[in-house]
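chain below, 542 aa
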Amino acid sequence: MNIIIGGAWPYANGSLHIGHIAGLLPGDVLARYFRAKGDKVCYVSGSDCHGTPVAIRASQENKTAAQISDFYHDEFTDCFKRLGFTYDLYGKTSSEEHKSFVMDFHRKLYKGGYVYEKETLQTYCRICKKFLPDRFVNGICPNCGENARGDQCEACGSVLEPEALLQAHCCICGNPPQLRATKHLYLAVTRMKDDLDAYVSSHIDWRKNACEMSARYIREGLRDRSLTRDLDCGIDVPAEGYEGKKIYIWAENVLGYLSCCETLCSQNHLDFLDFWNSSRQYYVHGKDNIPFHTIILPSLLLGRTDAHFRLPDDIISSEYMTLEGRKISTSANWAIWIKDILECYHPDSIRYFMIGNGPEKRDTDFTWREFINTHNGELLGAYGNFVNRSLVFIQKYQSNQVPQAKTIPAILKEIHSLYASTGSTVEQGNFKEALEEIFAYIRAANKFFDDEQPWITVKNNPDRCDETMNACVQIIANLSNLLEPFLPFSSEKVRGFLSITKPSWEVVKVEPGLELRPVEILFERIDKKVVQQEEDRLKHNL
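prediction:
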């Protein structure tokens, strides 16, 4: 089976924080799971280097957009690697491969019958002496009355145009912009209403936020979208008469999934369109990106009448994560930066918390107290404890070799069932539920160890002790597979103890007589005094 997994492209204008990772981590869980099953996986994402936030940051620091985006792209790449993300390709919108693909895609899109030219009014700042990108215009949302940008209101989710804002002003100089006539190309999204309605209606399996938000956009009325803009940074418009204009960011960044996939297909001598259309596709992002994946990307693909493109299958759209009861704010420095948290804590601890306590289907809150309690209680107290107590017992009392005993049939049956149930749950996008089921089994395994009392049977019933400890080894070996998508670093370490070469999504058996490799503690306890230190440090940043 072919699988395409697309992770949202973060703006390369500042460091990643926990909210970004909470929304993106499910993509790596899916990629690791499907690879373990033996499927052909194309897991892609990249840095958005043309977005207005990059231009704003460059203006603030008196640097070029390329200098800003390249710096943060390198930082993102390092953070994702340290967190264990296994992208097959993490690109950037400024790469030549992406630019070439997008320009070719647009040339063909313009000939498909859904693109037309129209003179329109665009916001222009007389003080800055340039047309303003949507995000350079701030004001009041006409729908809910909250502060909003010129492209979208984060408060109510409305997709906006700058001219619709109340009390609009340039975010650079603060002066109100004026509207000036300019010529642009438009995508006739309104003519695709029936196709988009049928597409969204056919996916009742999407998460509730994706279903409701997508249906609302269609119900409240689609509108045609400008494909081009008067911008300084971006990809040139491949059409005569549009010299100096750029492809609008929304019409090129979502095509990054396709450009990366085409690059990988080319490297592996595969036909791109065949692979794209034969793959089950997952798109992983936060809820603010829903319309760009359920309306915008499908519109672009439907507009290419020269070829058929499969539309997104699964939308993995997370809710928001807050921090200590407050909305994460990068401008107020109320955030936990990934580059910083990785310096102090085990990457599996971060991954476990983001899946087990993350905003999968509702808004959730990150607190240092809960993060540390989760690490000490679940990773250390349950999982790490079971692995350590079992393998150290074998080292000490059973000559450091897997006992010569048949594995208890009931244990094998439970393990086999766990693969089937958690695998199905992961494929449906219910990662928290899958992880909870595995850890419920870990707690049951600890109870099994306690009930069997091997420290007693090793003296008065050696055969039963051998049977018990053989069962514990088989459980540990299979946990290294089952937890691989979630906790890859500790899973790799456990496989090393048992000389297992690679993860797989099927029952693995460790042969009796195998000599264990040196066993190390999986997780160290975090001192609870750290809670107050971290809370104080966070508040100090305000």
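The mean pLDDT is 94. The chain has three domains: 2-106+250-340, 113-229, 367-497.
thats it, cya
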